[in-house]
Design goal:
alpha+beta; 6-stranded mixed β-sheet; 3-stranded antiparallel β-sheet; 2 helices; hydrolase; tt1808, chain A
Length: 149
C-alpha cells in the first residue's frame, strides 16, 4: 500500500483467500484492505493517537438518510451529547479531491449537521468548520483536536 501523509501506526494485516485484510480497532475485526480502507484506518489512528478523540465517540460506516436515500459516512466523531461533531470522508490516495467530492460530503452533512467536515485521500486533507446559521464553510488549517468543551 502507498505511503500516506499521516502518521504511521502499528497495523495488523493478514492474507485471506481473495484479498488482504487489515484489523479495525473499532469494529474489532479484520476488514478487506482496499485503498480507501488503508486511508480510513490511517485517519482513524490519527484521530485517536494524535488528536486524542476517544474511540467510544467514533463510528465507521454508519448509515444516515438524506431525503429518501440511504448513505453511509466513512467516519463520524460524535460529541458527548451524541450529536455529530466531525464528519470525515475518506477517498483512496489515487482519487483526487474535487468539487464533486466536496459536494458529496456537503450533502451528507445536510442531515447530520456536524460542526466540522474533513475530506482526505491520505495525501491531502481538507477541513472546514460549518456555520449553519450563515451557511458558511470556514476553511481550517488542521483538524481540531479533541476537547471536552
Amino acid at each position: 500500500m502507498q505511503e500516506l501523509n499521516l502518521p504511521p501506526f502499528d497495523y495488523k494485516i493478514k492474507q485471506a483467500e481473495a484479498s488482504p485484510l487489515i484489523f479495525d480497532i473499532l469494529r474489532k475485526k479484520y476488514v478487506v484492505l482496499t485503498p480507501e480502507e488503508w486511508v480510513r484506518q490511517h485517519f482513524l489512528h490519527y484521530l485517536i493517537n494524535v488528536l486524542h478523540y476517544p474511540k467510544s465517540l467514533i463510528s465507521i460506516e454508519r448509515g444516515t438518510r438524506y431525503n429518501s436515500l440511504q448513505k453511509r459516512t466513512d467516519l463520524c466523531v460524535y460529541n458527548s451529547d451524541g450529536k455529530p461533531h466531525v464528519l470525515i470522508e475518506c477517498k483512496a490516495a489515487h482519487v483526487a479531491i474535487t468539487q464533486d467530492v466536496v459536494k458529496q460530503v456537503s450533502v451528507y452533512n445536510q442531515s447530520l449537521q456536524a460542526k466540522y467536515v474533513v475530506i482526505t485521500n491520505g495525501l491531502q486533507h481538507f477541513c472546514w468548520e460549518i456555520n449553519f446559521q450563515t451557511k458558511q464553510y470556514i476553511p481550517l488549517a488542521q483538524v481540531p483536536a479533541y476537547s471536552l468543551t
